[in-house]
Amino acid sequence: MSFFEKEYIKKYHRFIAATDEVGRGPLAGPVVATSVCFDGDLKKIKNIVSRLEGFGVTDSKKLTDNKRRKILQELNIDYSKEFGEFDIDGQLLKYRTVEKCNQYIEEHNILKSSLDAMKEAVASFGLREGVVLIDGNKKFDFPEADLYPIVKGDSKSVLIGLSSIIAKIYRDDLMIKFSRDFPHYGFEKNAGYPTAVHRAGISEHGITPIHRKTFKGVKEFVNGREVL
Fold first, then answer.
1. Which pLDDT band, with edges at 50, 70 and 90, does 226 fall under?
2. Residue 199's Cα: distance from chain center in Å?
3. Are 29 and 171 in contact (CB under 8 A)?
4. Using the 8-state DSSP alphabet, how is residue 77 labeled?
5. 3-state SS assignment for residue 26
6. CATH 3.30.420.10, the chain: domain bounds
7. 167 strand-pairing partners
């Protein structure tokens, strides 16, 4: 992965942020977005990106669960928290994770929920006059910065890749917790995605309060039994 971010940084930019989401496809649970931000001397960003590459940061989908967790542990990122900071060679970076629950998804649809989560994560830094790299081909309304949607950005931009790793582990751990309350759906392994075990659980036990009732594979059971 080359120094992809440099193509988007202008002289007037005061910060760079990247954001990605996890959980658009599952039948249950929230969609989660994380943003990673650096608002220090942007001349240092090349070294930061290089160091992150050295830790193995890339698209979370290309990494095993153990590798994702190892990377975050080595970076001293507490992925269980919704926000925090970490240091790369004396340069401070920030991260923010936002989740939009299944009820929000049902009301607003999954695309808007994903974009809203990413926007909220970026906006939480309270910064202006910067650049934001967004994974995908859509962008949200955020006049405080120049926005660049990047298809497959999590495999091109190290900062987007790191955002994807944090969001992935945060959401996976959340679904593991849900599996303790709702043990028949395999959430601890499938993270809410429509696997055979998950579909069988819905068919046999009904839907749970965290299921997305507007999604195919769930809405057919809305009038049936719901697990409380």
1. low
2. 24
3. yes
4. -
5. coil
6. 4-179
7. none
pLDDT confidence of residue 4: 87
For residue 73, what are the CA distances in angstroms to 55, 126, 170? Answer: 10, 27, 13
The residue among 192, 138, 160 whose CA lies nearest residue 60 is 160
Handedness of CA 216, 118, 136, 187 (dihedral sign): negative
Which residues are 31's β-sheet partners? 100
**What's the Cα-to-Cα distance from 88 to each of 18, 48, 94, 121, 148, rounded to whole Å?**
16, 6, 11, 21, 24
Q: Tell me whether residue 206 is exposed, middle or buried, using C-beta atoms within 10 angstroms of its C-beta: 0 to 12, 13 to 18, 19 or more.
A: middle
Q: Are 23 and 176 in contact (CB under 8 A)?
A: no
Does the domain at 4-179 match CATH 3.30.420.10? Answer given as yes
Examine the pLDDT at 40 and tell me if it is beyond 90.
Answer: yes
Pairing of strands 31-38, 130-135: unpaired
Q: Sorting pLDDT into bands at 50, 70 and 90, what band is 1?
A: very low
